[in-house]
Protein backbone atom coordinates (compact mmCIF):
# COMPACT_ATOMS: atom_id res chain seq x y z
CA UNK A 1 0.00 0.00 0.00
CA UNK A 2 1.57 3.31 -1.08
CA UNK A 3 1.26 6.49 0.92
CA UNK A 4 0.60 9.87 -0.64
CA UNK A 5 3.50 11.86 0.79
CA UNK A 6 3.46 15.63 0.35
CA UNK A 7 6.84 17.34 0.14
CA UNK A 8 7.70 21.04 0.04
CA UNK A 9 8.24 20.76 -3.70
CA UNK A 10 4.67 19.59 -4.31
CA UNK A 11 2.94 22.16 -2.09
CA UNK A 12 1.54 25.32 -3.64
CA UNK A 13 3.75 28.19 -2.63
CA UNK A 14 2.14 31.05 -0.70
CA UNK A 15 1.66 34.19 -2.75
CA UNK A 16 1.49 32.40 -6.09
CA UNK A 17 -1.25 33.37 -8.52
CA UNK A 18 -2.76 30.62 -10.64
CA UNK A 19 -3.60 31.38 -14.26
CA UNK A 20 -5.01 29.14 -16.96
CA UNK A 21 -3.29 27.90 -20.12
CA UNK A 22 -5.12 30.70 -21.92
CA UNK A 23 -6.12 34.08 -20.56
CA UNK A 24 -7.61 37.37 -21.67
CA UNK A 25 -4.81 39.93 -21.46
CA UNK A 26 -4.41 43.63 -22.19
CA UNK A 27 -1.51 45.49 -23.82
CA UNK A 28 -2.33 49.08 -22.83
CA UNK A 29 0.86 50.55 -24.34
CA UNK A 30 -0.45 49.31 -27.70
CA UNK A 31 -4.04 50.37 -26.91
CA UNK A 32 -5.17 46.72 -26.90
CA UNK A 33 -7.64 46.39 -24.05
CA UNK A 34 -8.37 42.68 -24.40
CA UNK A 35 -7.12 39.76 -26.47
CA UNK A 36 -6.84 36.02 -26.00
CA UNK A 37 -3.36 34.76 -25.19
CA UNK A 38 -1.95 31.27 -24.92
CA UNK A 39 0.38 30.78 -21.98
CA UNK A 40 3.28 28.82 -23.45
CA UNK A 41 5.97 27.82 -20.96
CA UNK A 42 7.75 25.99 -23.80
CA UNK A 43 8.36 29.28 -25.61
CA UNK A 44 11.09 31.53 -24.28
CA UNK A 45 9.94 34.81 -25.86
CA UNK A 46 6.38 36.07 -26.18
CA UNK A 47 5.13 36.56 -29.73
CA UNK A 48 2.40 38.83 -31.08
CA UNK A 49 0.63 38.35 -34.40
CA UNK A 50 1.71 41.44 -36.34
CA UNK A 51 1.39 42.21 -40.04
CA UNK A 52 2.54 44.97 -42.38
CA UNK A 53 5.63 45.85 -40.33
CA UNK A 54 7.28 49.17 -41.25
CA UNK A 55 10.33 50.61 -39.55
CA UNK A 56 11.33 54.25 -39.23
CA UNK A 57 13.89 56.34 -37.40
CA UNK A 58 12.67 58.82 -34.80
CA UNK A 59 15.10 60.91 -32.70
CA UNK A 60 17.89 58.44 -33.48
CA UNK A 61 15.84 55.40 -32.40
CA UNK A 62 14.31 52.66 -34.51
CA UNK A 63 10.51 52.35 -34.32
CA UNK A 64 8.19 49.81 -35.90
CA UNK A 65 4.57 50.22 -36.88
CA UNK A 66 2.33 47.20 -37.49
CA UNK A 67 -1.23 45.93 -37.64
CA UNK A 68 -2.71 43.36 -35.27
CA UNK A 69 -5.68 41.68 -36.99
CA UNK A 70 -8.48 39.63 -35.38
CA UNK A 71 -9.26 42.02 -32.53
CA UNK A 72 -12.93 42.23 -33.47
CA UNK A 73 -12.38 45.52 -35.26
CA UNK A 74 -13.81 46.05 -38.75
CA UNK A 75 -10.39 47.36 -39.78
CA UNK A 76 -6.95 46.91 -38.31
CA UNK A 77 -5.43 49.74 -36.31
CA UNK A 78 -1.75 50.59 -36.81
CA UNK A 79 0.22 50.23 -33.61
CA UNK A 80 3.63 51.78 -33.04
CA UNK A 81 6.46 50.86 -30.66
CA UNK A 82 10.17 51.46 -30.19
CA UNK A 83 12.32 48.52 -31.35
CA UNK A 84 14.26 47.25 -28.33
CA UNK A 85 16.13 44.48 -30.14
CA UNK A 86 16.28 42.27 -33.20
CA UNK A 87 16.67 38.60 -32.29
CA UNK A 88 16.88 35.23 -33.96
CA UNK A 89 13.88 33.40 -32.52
CA UNK A 90 12.88 29.87 -33.44
CA UNK A 91 9.37 29.55 -34.84
CA UNK A 92 7.05 26.63 -33.99
CA UNK A 93 8.86 24.49 -36.58
CA UNK A 94 12.23 25.21 -34.96
CA UNK A 95 13.43 27.46 -37.79
CA UNK A 96 15.21 30.64 -36.60
CA UNK A 97 13.65 33.93 -37.77
CA UNK A 98 15.01 37.44 -37.29
CA UNK A 99 12.28 39.34 -35.43
CA UNK A 100 11.78 42.80 -34.02
CA UNK A 101 11.33 42.82 -30.25
CA UNK A 102 9.40 45.55 -28.45
CA UNK A 103 8.55 46.18 -24.81
CA UNK A 104 4.97 46.57 -23.66
CA UNK A 105 3.03 46.52 -20.44
CA UNK A 106 0.89 43.41 -20.08
CA UNK A 107 -2.19 43.22 -17.87
CA UNK A 108 -3.47 39.88 -16.56
CA UNK A 109 -6.37 40.24 -14.16
CA UNK A 110 -5.34 42.88 -11.59
CA UNK A 111 -1.60 42.57 -12.27
CA UNK A 112 0.57 44.39 -14.78
CA UNK A 113 4.26 44.47 -15.69
CA UNK A 114 6.59 45.07 -18.63
CA UNK A 115 7.46 42.25 -21.05
CA UNK A 116 9.43 41.71 -24.27
CA UNK A 117 7.30 40.77 -27.29
CA UNK A 118 8.55 39.60 -30.67
CA UNK A 119 6.49 40.55 -33.72
CA UNK A 120 5.70 37.84 -36.25
CA UNK A 121 3.03 36.54 -38.60
CA UNK A 122 0.99 34.04 -36.55
CA UNK A 123 -1.76 33.74 -39.15
CA UNK A 124 -1.73 29.93 -39.02
CA UNK A 125 -1.95 29.89 -35.20
CA UNK A 126 -5.09 29.90 -33.03
CA UNK A 127 -3.93 32.62 -30.64
CA UNK A 128 -2.73 36.08 -31.65
CA UNK A 129 -0.36 36.19 -28.67
CA UNK A 130 1.71 33.55 -26.96
CA UNK A 131 3.07 34.46 -23.57
CA UNK A 132 6.50 32.87 -23.12
CA UNK A 133 8.23 31.84 -19.92
CA UNK A 134 10.49 34.92 -19.62
CA UNK A 135 7.34 37.08 -19.40
CA UNK A 136 6.08 34.92 -16.52
CA UNK A 137 9.34 34.56 -14.63
CA UNK A 138 9.59 36.43 -11.32
CA UNK A 139 5.87 37.24 -11.21
CA UNK A 140 4.73 34.41 -8.93
CA UNK A 141 2.48 32.77 -11.51
CA UNK A 142 1.57 29.12 -11.75
CA UNK A 143 -0.08 27.78 -14.91
CA UNK A 144 -2.99 25.35 -14.54
CA UNK A 145 -2.86 23.38 -17.81
CA UNK A 146 -6.46 22.18 -17.43
CA UNK A 147 -8.02 25.62 -16.79
CA UNK A 148 -8.75 28.72 -18.88
CA UNK A 149 -9.46 32.37 -18.09
CA UNK A 150 -8.85 32.17 -14.33
CA UNK A 151 -7.57 35.75 -14.06
CA UNK A 152 -10.72 37.36 -15.45
CA UNK A 153 -10.70 40.46 -17.63
CA UNK A 154 -7.64 42.74 -17.52
CA UNK A 155 -8.19 45.37 -14.82
CA UNK A 156 -4.67 46.74 -14.11
CA UNK A 157 -4.78 47.67 -10.45
CA UNK A 158 -1.51 46.18 -9.14
CA UNK A 159 1.81 47.07 -10.79
CA UNK A 160 4.38 44.30 -10.41
CA UNK A 161 8.04 45.33 -10.27
CA UNK A 162 10.19 44.23 -13.26
| SSE class | mainly beta
Task: Name the CATH architecture of the domain at 14-48 and 83-118 and 126-159.
Answer: Beta Barrel
The best one-word shape is globular
Per CATH, the class of the domain at 14-48 and 83-118 and 126-159 reads: Mainly Beta
Helix content: under 10%
Query: How much strand content do the residues show?
Result: over 45%
Q: Multimeric state of these chains?
A: single chain
Strand order of the largest sheet: 2-3-10-4-9-8
CATH level 4 superfamily of the domain at 14-48 and 83-118 and 126-159: Acid Proteases
Largest sheet geometry: 6 strands, mixed, barrel
Q: What is the total tally of β strands?
A: 12
CATH topology of the domain at 14-48 and 83-118 and 126-159: Cathepsin D, subunit A, domain 1
- Point out poorly predicted stretches: none
Mean pLDDT: 85
* Count of helix runs: 1
Order of helices and strands: EEEEEEEEEEHEE
Radius of gyration: 17 Å
N-end to C-end Cα span: 47 Å
